[in-house]
Design a protein that fits this description.
single chain; about 170 residues; 7 helices; about 0% strand
Length: about 170
């Protein structure tokens, strides 16, 4: 189905197609979080779930800024977005909670889970752990995360497109 009002987050090209056109199983104001993902997040993080959603929006905006509209599944922008989101979650909450949140998102986020996304999330957590060790405030953490994720993309440590994961994980 379609919603009668436009997406309040303006996250989609078609502002009436948010929540993946599934109003019965998606309920958040941004239109991006399924009921299962929301309940799982509450179980893992409690009230801090809003920060995970905030960082998701930040990663999406950064990927859109760098790659334009090319941030859909298995593109360079999608790889960068997953890396940034996972890294900043790790910086904010630690590796264990970041892994739980990103795994939850991949399982219940609406799109089919992609091994590429799991891989890029893992690379992001490694970056986030390094940034967390040396950075105490978000003003310093965000640019470091963006730079390190972009570097990993350039050197193909984070991957995009079908078939590339087998090649990268074998090294």
């Amino acid at each position: 189905g379609r919603f009668l009002q436009p997406d309040p987050a303006a996250a989609e090209t078609n502002l009436y197609a948010y929540a993946k056109n599934t109003p019965t199983t998606r309920m958040d104001f941004s239109g991006k979080v399924s009921v299962a993902e929301f309940v799982g997040c509450l179980f893992i993080m409690g009230a801090a779930c809003y920060l995970a959603e905030k960082w998701s929006g930040w990663a999406q905006r950064e990927a859109s800024y760098v790659f334009g509209s090319k941030t859909v599944n298995d593109t360079m922008g999608d790889a960068y977005k997953h890396c940034c989101w996972s890294a900043i979650l790790t910086w904010q909450f630690g590796k264990s909670d970041a892994k739980a949140l990103t795994d939850l998102h991949e399982r219940f986020g609406g799109d089919a889970p992609s091994q590429i996304d799991y891989h890029n999330n893992r690379v992001g957590r490694e970056i986030g752990a390094v940034v967390r060790a040396f950075t105490r405030n978000v003003v310093d953490a965000r640019p470091r995360v963006k730079t390190l994720c972009f570097d990993r993309l350039r050197f193909r440590a984070i991957v995009h497109g079908p078939g590339l994961l087998r090649y990268r994980d074998s090294t």
